[in-house]
Specification:
single chain; alpha+beta; 2 domains; eight-stranded mixed beta sheet; two-stranded antiparallel ribbon; 4 helices; 10 strands
């Protein structure tokens, strides 16, 4: 009878030891076991629409340090970016994204086109002669904004989800900025 009792005591001791180990030693998450560590912060690139406005010749200096005037192709797909609400213009219902309208005005901003120097009037080409001109009502540059009306627009060119148009370089506009 003694060997059975000793076996039961040993078995109870083993169960007690296993329970203690399970409580004392924290469980390792699947990510940590894979060598990935704890969850990381949101690593998406930040962008914003400047709160200040600039004429076309001042557009390249419209962003704070660590950001630069964005090309449309850098911010074309905003689902891959994070809007910087601390630096950027916001509207009543913009949530965590850019505004489409602020104080009844469209949230429009200068945007780099990737085109040669051009002062014409074609959206996507015009760029205030590579952002150097401010010739009254002669030279134009390209601006974009998120679509105001989610139906087809007759006054602007849709580059979904953006609307592009040209504005005279002498008219101050906000600037689209993206993290360096």
């Amino acid at each position: 009878m003694k060997p059975i009792r000793n076996s039961l005591v040993a078995f109870a001791g083993l169960i007690l030891f296993a329970a203690t180990v399970a409580i004392v030693i924290p469980l390792v998450s699947h990510e940590q076991a894979q060598g990935q560590g704890p969850p990381q912060r949101d690593q998406r690139r930040l962008y914003y629409l400047s709160q200040n406005t600039r004429t076309g010749s001042g557009a390249l200096t419209g962003c704070v340090a660590g950001y630069h005037m964005a090309s449309l192709w850098e911010i074309f797909d905003p689902s891959n970016l994070k809007y910087n609400r601390e630096l950027g213009l916001t509207g009543d219902d913009s949530g965590f994204g850019p505004p489409i309208s602020v104080n009844g005005e469209g949230a429009v901003g200068w945007i780099r086109t990737g085109n040669d120097a051009d002062s014409g009037s074609t959206a996507g080409q015009a760029n205030c002669n590579a952002w150097t001109l401010e010739n009254g009502d002669v030279a134009s540059g390209t601006v974009v904004q998120p679509a105001l009306d989610w139906r087809t627009s007759t006054t602007a060119t849709s580059v979904s989800p953006w609307i592009a148009k040209t504005v005279f370089c002498s008219f101050p506009q906000h600037v689209w900025c993206v993290q360096d």
